[in-house]
Amino acid sequence: MKILFYVFLYICVLPFTSISQENEFTADELFLKARQQAFEQKKYLEAIKLSKEALQQAPEYTDISIFLGRLYTWSDYIDSARMVFTNLDNRDVQDEDFFLAYASLEYWNDQSTRANEIVDKGIALHANSQDLLLLKTKVNYSNNNYEIAENSVNRLLELNPKHTEARALIKNIQEYTAKNAVGISYTFTHFDRQFENDWHIVGLSYRRATPIGSVIFRTNYANKFADNGLQLELEAYPRLSKMFYLYVGAGYSDNVGIFPNYRTGVSLYANLPQSFEGELGYRQLYFNDHIWMYTASVGKYYQNYWFNFRTYLTPGQENISQSYTGTVRYYIKGANDYLGFLVGTGLSPEENRNNLLDNASYRLKTFKVGAEYNFSVNRTNLFSVSSTYYNQEFRPNEKGNQIDITVGYIKTF
């Protein structure tokens, strides 16, 4: 009888014991469930609850505490996040992810000074951390500390030249750090059939970085058709925000035919998410009549490559003339060290031969292919060499070849 009683008791208690065992998860299992709730289901509050249960079992589990701080940050519980990270700081936690999470919290909440203090402490312990160097770059770029941002992004690119986001950032940062730049360029152009004389163009430029963007003064001297001409240009790149900036340009020359009498241009540029760039704008040339061209381009940084596709559309009385150019750059080191290749069709107003547009030859077929090599010495001496080959229909069903060779030098200071 007694044996039967214990058997009955065991049968009654067994289900509750099994349920209790099923509900007893380890801290690691709770951590895994919390991550699944956060990343797969986007249920941050449930993830917070599971993380806190895990910490009750393992209060010193650093990874879970850091994750809880991140969850509070993403859920906009800023005070709770700071409390978690302050406790970890008091415990002298030295994990790279702790510094990244804590500094990100302060950066996203406009506390750049505190974010810098945290990220610097992290870099002192993890000197080769790409994530911390990228965050340091962003913090200082957003706070207009451009020289510090340039140093950190250059260090990051030394560690990883294929870092896509750093590659996109450095171009914008250097617009502010190089306060002054003087440059000289020379272009030689040879035609096999279209014109008897070679062309020679020399350009002198001065660029000044201002608080609202760069301003460039340029003087171009040209010898074309065995005649000389001079052109004055002014360009500016005013910044509207960290995302948007403008190109505004104008030029004037008394030597019509060698250069347009005057030119104007405006473009709106956007630094888009995922390291994309976009542009919309127009260019206008005046020789004996106005030529209006509308342009659009899209660019993308990927590792240490930059891809760009640009078009110019020129409305005419009977049709719309079109020009397309694709460009690829392979960056070897920093922002000024790269190999570039282009292929395209049609004429563009940016080219030294834009005076060919005056006779409506832009309606004829043109193919071009080119390459360029840019390199820097001690970061302040920038050298470039490029060459472009053109096969152009200069009269209906009659084509000629053209070769451009350009060399340039820029000194920044």
Automatic annotation (TrEMBL):
Record-linked Pfam families: TPR_19, YaiO
Domain YaiO beta-barrel: 179-351
Name of the protein: YaiO beta-barrel domain-containing protein
Organism: Sphingobacterium pedocola
